[in-house]
Design goal:
Distance between the termini: 78 Å
Number of helices: 11
Number of domains: 2
Order of helices and strands: HHHHHHEHEHEHHH
CATH architecture of the largest domain: 3-Layer(aba) Sandwich
Radius of gyration: 27 Å
Number of strands: 3
Strand order of the largest sheet: 1-2-3
Strand content: 5-15%
Length: 202
């Protein structure tokens, strides 16, 4: 028994697993490489060391900054090097004078291929919708496909939503998109005076 206790006492402490190195090994495997191949054995630790070297001393933890994971981590690199992230919508809309154009509009129509929850998280459609509805301007969102959650959120903000797939069928929505949009717009405009938008019937 004494020998067993002595052997247990002399067992080396487990080496902590470096999370960056572990992730690198997983990525290599996902790419079809063998992380245990001799030429790649030191790659995970080199990547981990490089990451820590490149991000040390900048006085910022990119994990605490929203948007740093965008574009494959490019946002994080910009912040680590002392840069500041700005909303792409805010930059572009400022350059083209979109806010002024919205304020002088009677109605706004916007859209994209698929209108879902992510559309409301800083994308163009969600940003236009938010800016216009906050100014009391009617908004119509026209999209190829629409999820119920996104539609409910848009309607709660006062917008109308048209799903081309629901209105015209998937085949026509894909194969004759321009005419579907034209017809959806015409239907909305013709019925707008009654207080019922095409999006509320789609």
């Amino acid at each position: 028994m004494g020998g067993i206790v002595e052997a247990m006492a002399t067992q080396p402490e487990p080496v902590p697993v470096d999370p960056i190195a572990a992730l690198t090994r997983d990525l290599l495997a996902e790419l079809g490489e063998d992380p245990n191949r001799e030429a790649l054995l030191r790659t995970p630790t080199r990547v981990a060391a490089s990451m820590r070297f490149l991000t040390r001393g900048y006085g910022v933890d990119v994990r605490d900054v929203a948007g740093t994971g965008a574009a494959g981590g490019l946002g994080g690199a910009i912040v680590a090097l002392g840069g500041h992230l700005r909303s792409g919508y805010e930059v572009v809309s400022g350059l083209v004078g979109l806010s002024a154009a919205l304020r002088s509009s009677q109605m706004v129509m916007t859209g994209e291929g698929a209108f879902d929850a992510t559309s409301l998280l800083g994308k163009v459609v969600g940003s236009v919708l938010g800016e216009a509805t906050s100014s009391g301007i009617p908004v119509v969102v026209i999209a190829g496909q629409v999820t119920p959650e996104a539609a409910d959120a848009a309607r709660a903000a006062g917008a109308s939503v048209v799903s081309l797939t629901e209105r015209f069928g998937a085949e026509r929505a894909v194969g004759d998109t321009v005419r579907c949009i034209e017809q959806a717009v015409a239907e909305f405009l013709s019925s707008n005076g009654t207080g019922q938008g095409a999006g509320d019937r789609a």
